[in-house]
Automatic annotation (TrEMBL):
<comment type="pathway">
    <text>Cofactor biosynthesis; riboflavin biosynthesis; 5-amino-6-(D-ribitylamino)uracil from GTP: step 2/4.</text>
</comment>
<protein>
    <recommendedName>
        <fullName>Riboflavin biosynthesis protein RibD</fullName>
        <ecNumber>3.5.4.26</ecNumber>
    </recommendedName>
</protein>
<keyword id="KW-0560">Oxidoreductase</keyword>
<dbReference type="GO" id="GO:0008835">
    <property type="term" value="F:diaminohydroxyphosphoribosylaminopyrimidine deaminase activity"/>
</dbReference>
<dbReference type="InterPro" id="IPR002734">
    <property type="entry name" value="RibDG_C"/>
</dbReference>
<dbReference type="InterPro" id="IPR024072">
    <property type="entry name" value="DHFR-like_dom_sf"/>
</dbReference>
<keyword id="KW-0521">NADP</keyword>
<comment type="similarity">
    <text>In the C-terminal section; belongs to the HTP reductase family.</text>
</comment>
<dbReference type="Pfam" id="PF00383">
    <property type="entry name" value="dCMP_cyt_deam_1"/>
</dbReference>
<dbReference type="GO" id="GO:0008703">
    <property type="term" value="F:5-amino-6-(5-phosphoribosylamino)uracil reductase activity"/>
</dbReference>
<dbReference type="InterPro" id="IPR050765">
    <property type="entry name" value="Riboflavin_Biosynth_HTPR"/>
</dbReference>
<comment type="similarity">
    <text>In the N-terminal section; belongs to the cytidine and deoxycytidylate deaminase family.</text>
</comment>
<feature type="domain" description="CMP/dCMP-type deaminase">
    <location>
        <begin position="229"/>
        <end position="350"/>
    </location>
</feature>
<dbReference type="Pfam" id="PF01872">
    <property type="entry name" value="RibD_C"/>
</dbReference>
<comment type="function">
    <text>Converts 2,5-diamino-6-(ribosylamino)-4(3h)-pyrimidinone 5'-phosphate into 5-amino-6-(ribosylamino)-2,4(1h,3h)-pyrimidinedione 5'-phosphate.</text>
</comment>
<dbReference type="InterPro" id="IPR016193">
    <property type="entry name" value="Cytidine_deaminase-like"/>
</dbReference>
<dbReference type="InterPro" id="IPR002125">
    <property type="entry name" value="CMP_dCMP_dom"/>
</dbReference>
Length: 376
């Protein structure tokens, strides 16, 4: 099920705090970074915060620049992004500026919280999403019912922690401010718990006055049939690799990446690489791994096209090579059409061998792009 692109945005002190314990909100960013954040808001379909942030900071969460608002309108978007609040209790101040500024607002809450919020007269679409709030349900609701494709999450710590731990965050934008809070009772950006193992990918660093912006992407694949945000990033990379293949009239252009459970890239490959006219992407990638590497049994293979089930050019098709390597999770963007092999069902071969096979159709067009001359 497609979910919005989830961007976590926060400013932190050098010692990792989001705020101090004083009654006023601690201003961590400087003017240049506030302007950058305004630009990010303008590019989002919705901005989400937890109820704790509304209680602590009383934010309005607007696009402040008139030019950016005008550009949104010119692009056919509402002047302001949708504002989304998340609360279990529904215990919110109906007079808070959050509800009375900007455009549309929605409160995603529980059945109990919805009853309380309605009784309080919260000026928003109050949406009950079950007895408990599940983040995938919240994101699917925003995607399917509110058309949200890019979601900016502006805190607080409890919300950021859950989205990162549940592998639902596509990107983390951290503004590191040259301040030290030093108060153990102050809120931290991320709480304790089980995060992905391994390293996140550093995408960018940028100096903005005395603040440093750091952008990261989580890297850990999902598990079994559960899709993580990083699954989409790795599959997008496989699609980009497909675009690097030498063109052929008799074979597809495909890219593949093998990724360990902790998000470490083990190998990548693409069709016909290294002057081998018949090598397939998954085959090329797996050939670069150590067959004795214990990480293969919990690794994921990303392939822009479903791994092949039958082939004439080599003894073993890629679905078999993947199973023989011990890999039991495959993510792909496109089921193999009948162009060269009628009725190919690599997914079926993999599933029969005990592998979880996930199809992410949102990347199908990108997987097909370098093969347009074959598929029409
Ligand atoms: N520096 C920054 O960039 C930045 C940005 C934002 C916030 N902050 C700071 O962060 C602090 C607030 O963070 P916080 O962690 O206390 O609060 P928070 O994350 O903003 O909100 C937590 C609240 O959201 C609701 N919630 C979150 N997950 C839920 C779930 N799975 N199910 C049901 N309800 C859920 C609950 O509301 P109910 O209690 O209503 O059930 C929960 O108490 C403030 O000090 C603020 O200044 C800093």
């Amino acid at each position: 099920m497609p979910l919005p692109y989830v961007l976590l945005s926060a400013a932190v002190s050098l010692d990792g705090y989001l705020d101090d314990t004083g009654p006023e909100r601690l201003l961590l960013s400087g003017p240049e970074d506030f302007d950058r954040v305004d630009g990010e808001r303008a590019s989002a379909d919705a901005i989400l915060v937890g109820a704790g942030t509304i209680r602590a900071d009383n934010p309005r969460l607007l696009v402040n620049s008139a030019e950016r608002r005008a550009a949104r309108i010119a692009a056919g978007k509402p002047e302001f992004p949708l504002k989304v609040a998340v609360s279990g209790s529904g215990e919110l101040d109906p007079a808070a500026p959050f509800w009375h500024t900007g455009g549309d607002k929605v409160l995603c809450t529980t059945e109990r919280g919805a009853a309380r919020a309605r009784a309080l007269g919260i000026a928003a679409d109050v949406v009950a999403l079950g007895a408990e709030l599940d983040w995938r349900t919240v994101l699917a609701y925003l995607h399917d019912e509110r058309g949200v494709r890019r979601l900016m999450v502006e805190g607080g710590g409890s919300v950021h922690t859950q989205l990162l731990r549940q592998r639902l965050a596509d990107e983390l934008q951290l503004a590191l401010a040259p301040l030290l809070v030093g108060d153990p009772d102050a809120p931290r950006l991320f709480g304790p718990g089980a995060y992905q193992d391994g390293r996140l990918r550093l995408v960018e660093t940028r100096r903005l006055g005395d603040v440093v912006l750091m952008r990261y992407q989580p890297t850990a694949p999902g598990t079994g049939a559960t899709v993580s945000a990083a699954d989409r990033h790795w599959l997008a990379l496989a699609c980009d690799l497909a675009a690097q293949c030498p063109p052929s009239e008799t074979a597809f252009s495909v890219g593949a990446v093998v990724v360990a459970a902790d998000g470490t890239e083990l190998a990548r490959g693409h069709s016909r690489e290294g002057g081998d006219a018949v090598v397939h992407a998954e085959e090329a990638a797996l050939a670069k791994t150590d067959p004795a590497d214990p990480r293969l049994t919990t690794a994921t293979v990303y392939s822009s096209l479903e791994p092949c089930a039958r082939r004439a050019s080599r003894p073993a098709p890629c679905a078999r090579l993947i199973l023989d390597a011990g890999v039991r999770r495959v993510v792909t963007a496109w089921r193999e059409p009948d162009t060269f092999v009628p009725g190919a069902d690599g997914s079926g071969v993999l599933a029969a061998g005990g592998a979880a096979v996930l199809l992410l159709p949102e990347l199908e067009a990108r997987a097909k792009a370098p093969n347009r001359h074959l598929t029409g």
